[in-house]
Amino acid sequence: MLDGSTDDAKDDSAGDSAGGIATASDAAPARPPRTVVRWIVVGVLAIAIGVATYVLAVRTITGQTIENAALRGADQAGRAMTVQADSVLGTITITSMVIAMLALLVFAVIRRRSWVGLAALVIIVAGQVVTQVLKSFVLARPELIDAYPQYLQNSLPSGHTTAAMTILFGVLLVTPFRLRALVALVVMPWAIGVGAYTITAKWHRFSDTLAADAVALVIACLVCVIGVRMGYLRITVAEPPGRPIGHRAVVAFWSVLFVVALVGGLALWVLTWLAGPIDASAEYRYFLGALVGSAAGSIATGLVFWWTLQGVTIGDGPAARDDAAR
C-alpha cells in the first residue's frame, strides 16, 4: 500500500507524546514538535502579512489608486479570459463546498482518520466565517480617493479565495504523505486560478486575494495546533519506503512559477507607477500585475502550508481514540 495502512500501523505502535510527534523515544521531556512550531511561526507571519496588506492597500492613497486602476484595467480583458474566469469561479458554490467537505470526511474515515477529516472541515468553515466577519463588520475602506460607487465598498478578504485555499489545505491534511506532491500538482492550479480570476471578474482586488491567503493560512495553522494540543490530532514521523512521489519535481515546478509571477507582478506595477500618469494602457498593466501577483501569493501560501507538513503524517490522536472507546 502507498501510505494509508502503513501510517495507521505506525500510529498504533509509535506511542503517545504529549501533543507531539510519536516516536520510539517518547520518554524524552515533552516539547513542541517541529511541525507545531512551524504552524505557530507561519500563523504569526500570516497575521502580520494580512495586517500589512490591509494597511498598505486599503488605508493609503497609493494603494487605493493602484488597485482601483487595476479594476478598471480588468475591463480590457478579452472575452475568452472573462468566460474562463466565470467558469472557474462558478465551481465554488455552497453545494460544491458541501460536496468537497463530505468527500474529504469520507476519505479521512476510510483512512481511519476521522478527526483529521473533521479538522479539515473546521478549517474550511472557519475560514468562511472569519472572512465574512472581517469583510462585513471589522474592516472598513476609507474614501481616500475619488472612485466609482462600486469601488467604495470593502471587499477584503476574498471569500472565494479563502474557500479555495482552505479546501486545498484540507486536501493536503488528509492526503497520505507520499501522495501530497501529486495532490499539490492537481489541486493547486484550481486554487490559484480562483484567486486570480476574482480579479478578472472584477469581484476582488489583488489585496483581497492576498488577505484571504493569510486568513486561510492562519485558520489552518490554528486548527492544527489546537487539534494536536487537545490530543485529537497526532503528528507521526512519516517513513514510507522511498521518497514521496514527485516531491522535488513538483516543488521545483511551483517554486519557479512563484518566482516568475512575483517578479513579473512587481515589475509591472513598479514600472507602470514610475511611468507617470495613469491612462488606459497603465490600467491594463496594473490589472496584469494584480493577476500574476495574486497567483504568486496563492502559490506561496500553498507551498508554505505543504512545507509545514513536510516529513510527517497527521493521524487521530489518543484523545480521539478515548472518545471512540466510550
Automatic annotation (TrEMBL):
Keywords: Membrane, Transmembrane, Transmembrane helix. The keyword Metal-binding does not apply. Pfam families: PAP2 (PF01569). It comes from the Bacteria. Residues 1-28 are annotated as: Disordered. The chain crosses the membrane at residues 36-57, 88-109, 115-134, 155-175, 181-199, 211-232, 252-274, 286-309. SMART domains: acidPPc. Residues 15-28 have a biased composition (Low complexity). The keyword Signal does not apply. Gene3D superfamilies: Phosphatidic acid phosphatase type 2/haloperoxidase (1.20.144.10). Residues 116-224 form the Phosphatidic acid phosphatase type 2/haloperoxidase domain. This is Phosphatase PAP2 family protein. It comes from Gordonia mangrovi. The lineage of its organism: Bacteria, Bacillati, Actinomycetota, Actinomycetes, Mycobacteriales.
